[in-house]
Design brief:
The chain is of the alpha/beta class and 502 residues long. The chain folds into 2 domains: 259 residues, P-loop containing nucleotide triphosphate hydrolases (Rossmann fold), CATH 3.40.50.300; 179 residues, P-loop containing nucleotide triphosphate hydrolases (Rossmann fold, 3-Layer(aba) Sandwich), CATH 3.40.50. 32% of the residues lie in helices and 18% in strands. The chain contains 15 helices and 18 strands. It has a 9-stranded mixed beta sheet with strand order 1-7-8-6-9-10-5-11-4, with helices on both faces. Strands 14-15-13-16-17-12-18 form a 7-stranded parallel beta sheet, with helices on both faces. It has a two-stranded antiparallel sheet with strand order 2-3. Strand 7, helix 5 and strand 8 form a beta-alpha-beta unit.
Length: 502
Amino acid sequence: MADTPTEVDTSTASTATSIEAPPPQETKPATELPKRWAGADIEDGVAEVKGVAELDFGSLAVDEKKNVNPENSNIKAVCSSDTPYTSAYTFEELNLSPELLKGLYVEMKFEKPSKIQAISLPMIVTPPHLDLIAQAHNGSGKTTCFTLGMLSRVDPKLQAPQALCICPTRELAIQNLQVLNKMGKHTGITSQLFVQKDQTHASASTRRNSNPISKQLPITAQVVIGTPGTIWNWMSWKKLGASYMKILVFDEADQMLAQEGFRDASTRIMRAVERVSSHCQVLLFSATFNDSVKDFVAKIVKGNHNQLLVKKEDLSLESVKQYKVKVPDELSKIMVIKEKILEFGEGLGQTIIFVRTKNSASMLHKSLAHLGYDCTTIHGNLGNDDRDKIVKEFKDGLTQVLISTDLLSRGFDQQQINLVINYDLPVKYTDPTEPDCEVYLHRIGRAGRFGRKGAVFNLLCGDADEMIMSKIQSHYGAEVEEVANWRSDEEFKAALKSAGLL
């Protein structure tokens, strides 16, 4: 267990009347399993099923009598309890506090719930607060679902952690905290960010003098948002308690629970919370859930729960026009980006270019900079301060072109992004001949946020790229239109016009 300094930012929307937290509840012995997971043995992040029925991720039957789905919604709701849920067509129907409603209307500028919000929010805020597995399109308003859910469950007078949100990257954690603080500005609810502190440029004396977790005071912030490793460190040192935890959220849940993702840390956190707060509501949100993650979710979510699912053929974003462009070599990719996409797309909004590796990111950055383009690049090898600065500059509109690895493929919300370029198609790390269809969907979801227009250009070089693109099309049951001549100005202009951008 590493006792290392952590970057912990405290953000308080406003001063709230507070009382001291009552003595913590007695911790359950380690051998006592939470009731919800009574059929699973979880040890060191591994779960085994003992006669527990699988979740119904296959054919989804909707109980029309419960009136869960808004009109024309392709989101299928499955409820395993008798709790009646009615879609919320206004935020007032959710019985939220006046302070939260003010945050929604005045700060967030919302008018009414989106489709996913209309269905999911009643499930989140209505007793008995059942667990929820929620899948929906990128840019459909999932973040509001769980941030509003967390804020609505917190008692502002109790100075103790009551809501916990786990995110795969520091960028997503910071973004979610900003949304929560803006939405909860008038509530007085306190929040804290838990991400790894950047020691890249710190002096040896600074590192020695940083207070280790063991010497920190217990956390009293009511909402905690952070990355799994940092959260687990604080929980391990008994500085982040879960005795009063009411709601536990996993954003980008498929990555958080994937074997190659953060499954071990996520499972440890879930187990720690369940041992002292067995009635804590668990929310799993993502745009994608592959089969292996579905199998694992079936092992950890027990008893009555709710599901919101979208068939994979319905996930491809309608507002985003997708194109494939065949080019003869890597240099041609750069020329297409410069002379076609960025040239004709200038003034249409911001552009994000996805690459497969850090080396590709650096190479492309140098090439575009040499050609006179002002762009920034982000990847995992950069220090946290540099990453934060690059994201802030892009979100503030100071830079128009951002080159990124898949660090920003998930959850990154910037409404001014109208163009996404896949310089490299996403492939599985374990088998580069197979596409990562989930990552592809997340990438293209950076454009066309909340129904806005957007275009995606997939640059294909050689038979291998064409095969990967073909497999992606087959996976989602959709044909991606081709820009037949990569040298043609008119074809690229027509593509942007067809996407509604010209």
